[in-house]
Each structure stands twice: as structure tokens, then as C-alpha cells.
Design a protein that fits this description.
With 108 residues, the protein is mainly alpha-helical. The protein is built from five helices and no strands. It has one domain (3-107). 76% of the residues lie in helices and 0% in strands.
Amino acid sequence: MKSDEMEKKRYITIEGIDFRKIASIMTKAGYKMNHATARNQLMSALQKFLMNIVKQTEVKLEKEKIEEMINSQEIHGALTDVLNRAYEEMERERNAVLNQRKSKIETE
């Protein structure tokens, strides 16, 4: 690999968490894995996700371009932002339901 290519290639993290840390978290949660498995699982899911987006939007992208995208730190950062927003929205909805139930119980 050329030195300028090596400079462009960055180690992918998600919110500063590398694949070793992700593997450790997953193992503690009962899903035994090493860092390579964590990376492979994420990359496989991300590739399927992007392939579905390409298919749904009828965008013409070569498989090589999709592979380049899944290895980009920028796409991982964007995915992190989307997942954080989805999580926050789910928490807001869950809290709203819990508050409605609490109010209903208090008025009975």
C-alpha cells in the first residue's frame, strides 16, 4: 500500500469506540466475540443497509463504491448520528407513554 493511501485509510471507530471495545461490551452482554467478529458483523450489516438504500432510491452504484463507503469513517459517524437520534426519539416516546400511564393511575 502506498504511503499516501495509508494516510487516507483511518482506523474506524464509532463515537471513539474501537472494535476491541465493542467486542468486550458484546461479550459482557452474553454475545462472545472478538474484535474481528465485531468488525465483520458491523461491516456486513452496513453493507446490507447501504445496498437496500441504493435499491430503494434506484441509485446506480458499483459494489466497489459501496465497499469504499462502508470503510469510510464519515459513513460510520453519520450512522452513529442517525442511531443516536433514533434512540433519543424512542426514549422520548417511551417516557411519554410511561407518564400517561402514571397520570391515569394517579387520577383513578
